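I hope you will forgive my troubling you with a question about protein structure. I should value your view on which stretches of the chain appear to form regular backbone elements. Here, with my thanks, is the record as I have it:
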Amino acid sequence: MSTRILALCLGLCGAAYAGPYQILDEDPLLAIVIHKEGIAAAKAHNHIIVAPYKSATLDYTPDAPEKTQFSLAFPVSELAPDAAQARAKWSPVMIEKGVLEEPFEEMPADAPDKIRKTMLGPEQLDAEKYPDIKVTLKSLEPKAQDGGEKKTYTATFDFTLHGKTVEGTLDATLTTEGERLHVKALGAGRFTQFGIKPFSAMAGTMRNKDEFTIVVQFTAAPAK
């Protein structure tokens, strides 16, 4: 086919949009789930820490997803721990994904503020010394495909937290619906990778696990 005919075909049939995408306000989620453990764990809570997407940048090429570029940076102070609405809203999703076996437990009304103060303090994230979190996609490697609009990948990221940059992977699913892109991803990390000692109380009988779960889902559309 000549270049002229190909150009005419693309002009008539329409070419898939490739370029900047914007994340839509349709139940986006970027969260860390922290799991409780210890002999007194029944008195403790699992936690959900939600992060903002507002500063995310995404470039996507439908015909070449492996070229996807994604980055996100925001102040650690924008993390939202254990908001009652988030705990209620996302419990079914976490159970469906196998992240939790039961819904997030109910908390006293003042618990999120106390958790936030501890989380940002010098013994945990130390927000004053390490004010920023950064996430950068390094590669998107295809796994077995089903031949349809749903495709699975291993997404390799650099995570910068608490002054340390750690490479990690997520299992990601990309589904196209017209020009819309639906992304879901799941993975894990460890606090000690970032030089953070998991929270512990009551002589260690009530504590957070070192391993936490990362949950990602959003819908994006061309930023035209």
